[in-house]
Amino acid sequence: MIEREDGRRHLVTHLPVVEQSRVTAVGPNFGAVEAAADLRAIVGALLTYGLIIAVLMLVVCSAMWALASHSGSWHTAQKAKVGLFVALFGAALTGAALAWANWLLDLGAHL
Prior knowledge:
The protein is mainly alpha-helical. It has two helices and two strands. The protein starts with a strand and ends with a helix.
């Protein structure tokens, strides 16, 4: 309630707008990822090792599947088949992770 000059009281329904005289500039910190090239190299090297291991697992599991199927060991053939599919999924996931990491690093540079 505000009292007017004539003595009547007035109910305030809105607050007065106070303008700031000083505006603070807020923006992205471009220096936050200074070693993006080094980070890209480290991520690339780790994912390369992951792809090499996945390919080796593909070779081992496919050879095991062939040998187990030839010898009639259906349980070992089934385990080798599961290992082959896991290796395929791992190789696809590792390749996608490399593309995703590169996209994120490029996106961060453009912010």
